[in-house]
# Entry
Amino acid sequence: MTMLLPKFELHQPKTVADAVALAKKYGEQADYLSGGTDLLPNYKCGLNARKHVISLQHIADLKQISATEIGAGVTLTEIEHNTEVPAGVREAAGHIASPLLRESGTLGGNLMLDNRCHFFNQSYFWRNSLGYCLKADGDRCHVVPRINIDGKSELNNKVCVATHSSDLAPMLIALGAEATFVGPEGERTVKLNDFYYGDGIERYQRKDNEILVKVTLPDWALNVRSGWKKLAPRQSIDFSVAGVGIALELEGKKVKRLRIGLGAVDTTPVLFDYEGKDVRKAPHSYLFVDATKDAPEVIGKELTDELIDKVAMHVQTQAQPKLNVPMAPDYRKKMCGVLTRRLLKELRDGRE
Ligand SMILES: Cc1cc2nc3c(=O)[nH]c(=O)nc-3n(C[C@H](O)[C@H](O)[C@H](O)COP(=O)(O)OP(=O)(O)OC[C@H]3O[C@@H](n4cnc5c(N)ncnc54)[C@H](O)[C@@H]3O)c2cc1C
Ligand code: SF4
# Structure
C-alpha cells in the first residue's frame, strides 16, 4: 500500500543536453535519478514523488574519473577503489551505506541527497497520523515547534532543521572542491561550500533543472594529508550522525592549511577554514552553525596536542546537532570533538 513505488514515466536520455531538455519540459513534475538509493526509498514513502523520472545512468559524460575530476555518475565503489583521488575522498566514499548500495550510489546522488529527519523519513501513513511537517505535506516542525523571531517566540512554520547526511560533501568542501552544473541557461561552476545553503528544505542553491556534472579539486588537494571519520549507530550500513573530513598541510611542524568539513550536524555541511579565506555566511538564525565564531589561531603554529585540543573543542562547541536523527544530540556534539581530535592526531603523526 503506502510503501509501494508510485507510478512514474521513466526517461533514459544519453546526453546531458537531452536530460536538461526533458527536465525543462516537465518542470516541477520531474526528478533526476542516478543510482536511486535515496530517491526511490523516498518515493516509496510518498515523499515529494514526481510523475517523470529522468535517469542519468546512460550518460557516459558523467562517468569520467581522474585525480582531480570526478563525474557525477561515478559510483561510490569506483571512488573508493580509485588510488589517484585523495585518501579522504576514498575513505568517505568507502564508509557510505553498505557495499551493495555503494555499487549503485553515485557521487551526484550523494551530493544532492535529501536531508534526513525522524519525522520525515517515514511512510505516508505514519506521517499522516502525526499531521505531516513543513518538509512534506504539512505546515509545522515537530523538532523545533517554536522559534524566536525578533525576540518573540512564535510557532515554527518557517524553518526546517532536517540533517544534511552526505559523507562526501563535508570531505570535498574541506578539500576545496568546485561543482560544475549544466542547466537550461548553460554551464556554471561554483565552490561546493557556497552551493550548500539554507534550511533543511532549501539546503542548496541549485537553479531550475540543473544537472550536477562533475566535481573538480584544486591541485593543492593532492598535496595535503586528508582523512574522514564518521559516527553511525552501525558503521556497516547506517547514515552518519556526525562526520569529520580534514585537509591538513604542514610546513615542518607548523600548520600551513587546515580545513575541516563537518557533516550530519546541521542542515548543510559546514566548513571550518582556519585560514579564514573560504567563509560562507550562516543563514541568519541562531539555529545554524557559525564556523567562524571564536575560531582559535592555528595557521603558522606548531600542531601540538594542545593546539589539536583547542581545534577539537572549537568544532565541538560550534556543532549544533538536533534531535531528528539517531543518537542523542549531546553525545553527537561531543563526538564531533572526539573525531576531530583523533583524526588530526592521525594525520599529523603520519597517515597519508
Ligand atoms: C540504508 C542506507 C544507508 C545509507 N547510508 C549512507 C551513508 O552512510 N552516507 C551517505 O552519505 N549516504 C548514505 N545513504 C544514501 C545514498 O545511498 C547515498 O548518498 C548515495 O550516494 C546516493 O546516490 P544515488 O546515485 O543513489 O542517488 P539518487 O537516489 O539517484 O539521487 C539522490 C538525489 O540526487 C539527485 N541527483 C542525483 N544525481 C544528480 C545529478 N547528477 N544532478 C542533479 N541531481 C542529481 C536526485 O534527483 C535525488 O534528488 C544511504 C542510503 C541507504 C538506503
Ligand atoms: S526538522 Fe524538517 S523534516 Fe523534521 S519535523 Fe521539522 S520540518 Fe519536518
